[in-house]
Structure formats: structure tokens, C-alpha cells
Design goal:
- This protein is α/β, with parallel strands linked by helices and 213 residues long.
- Strands 2-3-1-4-5 form a 5-stranded parallel β-sheet, with helices on both faces.
- Helix 1 crosses helix 8, helix 2 crosses helix 3 and helix 4 packs across helix 7.
- The protein is globular, with a radius of gyration of 17 Å.
- The mean pLDDT is 95.
- The chain binds thymidine-5'-phosphate.
């Protein structure tokens, strides 16, 4: 059995990565290929802790305050290594196509908005490089409107000014990593189906390359 392919979806909160993840997984499945959808923060122990921190449900002893930006950067990197070992690598080794909602680029963009991006990059040095990252690009205003329509309570990083900074950090992060790994920018401004088609063209090309080998 050959090695599977590792595909990552990235974008601002509200860009639609989760919707596209399911759409793309359905298309891979329709080709008869095994597919695993997953996400970061992961569903492992560190990921669960991170999700509690993001939604403000992590209660700390009185006077301890929230987790620092540096602590969060370390936790996201630690969760990533756990996720790789526990879930992603075994699936890839079994020939499965793995599609992951967020990965290293999220750490560079989100944590890189408050701590030096080079340090965050260093923390993630041992993280397996994806075969393809699809960056779904929407401006911060569009992302904010979509989050409002979703109606869920705002999480830690979902503040409009911060999201504009994160959008700029994503562009920097793509310049930093884009030379050594494949990162494609896809416009997320169109409707869901059009974005899926634009993403699918790149996924299909990657899977086709594999099938031809
Ligand atoms: P989501 O599952 O709704 O996309 O929420 C995850 C949040 O966590 C989102 O605001 C982005 C943030 N995040 C980071 O700040 N750093 C990371 O490395 C990852 C994976 C996510």
C-alpha cells in the first residue's frame, strides 16, 4: 500500500475551511480512496485543553490570569506533534488521504500576530510538511460577517482588529513557508460550490500524480 497524501485547509475564522473539508472529503471518497478528516486543535488531550482555552472554559486558580501567547504557541505545537503521532502518520502510512482543518500555518498566522513568527516556525520545525495546503482567502470583513451569521459565541481570536492582523500574518507566513512546500491561495469570496471546485482542481491534480506513480 502506498503512502497517503496530507492536505491542509487554512483561513481566517469564517473563511469556510470546515465546510470545504467535508466537501473535499466527499469527492475523494467518491473516487474510491480512503480518506480521514481531522482538525487542529486536535481531539487529543492537548487539543481538548486548547479548545477549552479558546472558548474561555478553562478555569484557572484565582489570580492566575489567561494563558500567555507564548504558552499557547507551545501548546499548539505540542498538540500538533501528538496529533501527527497518534492519528495523521498512521493514516498516511496506511495509504489514507488525510485532510486536516488548520495546521502549522495557523500557528504562524495566529500566534505570529503576538509573538515572533520565526520562533513559532522553529517550534514547528519537526512537524511533517503537508503535500498541499489550500489557503481559503477572504478579507477580514467578509469573515466577520460570516461569523456573525453563524451566531456562535466569539472565541479567543475572533475579534475584528485581531483578525485583520492575522490576515496580514497569513500573507507573511505563506511567504516564509511557500518556498519549501506547496501552498495555494484560493479565493473564498465566491459561493460554497465554486470554492469547492477551485480547491478540488488542486486536490485532484495531487491525487492524480499519486495514482500515476
Ligand atoms: P476552529 O476550529 O473554529 O477553526 O478554531 C480554532 C481556533 O484556534 C481558530 O481561531 C484558530 C486558532 N488556532 C491557533 O491560534 N493556532 C493554531 O495553531 C491552530 C491550529 C488554531
Amino acid at each position: 500500500m502506498g503512502q497517503g497524501k496530507f492536505i491542509v485547509l487554512e483561513g481566517l475564522d469564517g473563511a469556510g475551511t470546515t465546510t470545504q473539508l467535508e466537501k473535499l472529503a466527499g469527492k475523494v471518497r467518491a473516487l474510491g480512496m480512503p480518506v480521514l478528516t481531522t482538525r487542529e486543535p486536535s481531539d487529543g488531550p492537548l487539543g481538548l485543553l486548547l479548545r477549552q482555552a479558546l472558548s474561555g472554559r478553562l478555569s484557572l486558580p484565582a489570580g492566575r490570569g489567561p494563558l500567555s501567547a507564548e504558552t499557547l504557541a507551545l501548546m499548539f505545537a505540542a498538540d500538533r506533534m501528538d496529533h501527527l503521532h497518534a492519528k495523521v502518520r498512521p493514516a498516511l502510512d496506511g495509504g489514507t488521504v488525510v485532510i486536516c482543518d488548520r495546521y502549522v500555518l495557523s500557528s504562524l498566522a495566529y500566534q505570529g500576530a503576538t509573538v515572533p513568527m520565526e520562533w513559532v516556525n522553529e517550534l514547528n520545525r519537526e512537524a511533517l510538511a503537508p503535500d498541499l495546503t489550500l489557503f481559503i482567502e477572504v478579507d477580514a470583513e467578509t469573515a466577520a460577517t460570516r461569523r456573525q451569521l453563524r451566531g456562535a459565541p466569539a472565541e479567543l481570536f475572533e475579534e475584528d482588529g485581531l483578525q485583520r492582523r492575522i490576515a496580514a500574518q497569513y500573507r507573511r507566513a505563506i511567504r516564509l513557508r511557500g518556498g519549501s512546500e506547496k501552498i495555494v491561495r484560493v479565493s473564498g469570496a465566491e459561493g460554497i460550490e465554486a470554492v469547492t471546485e477551485a480547491c478540488w482542481a488542486h486536490v485532484e491534480a495531487l491525487l492524480h500524480k499519486r495514482a500515476k506513480r
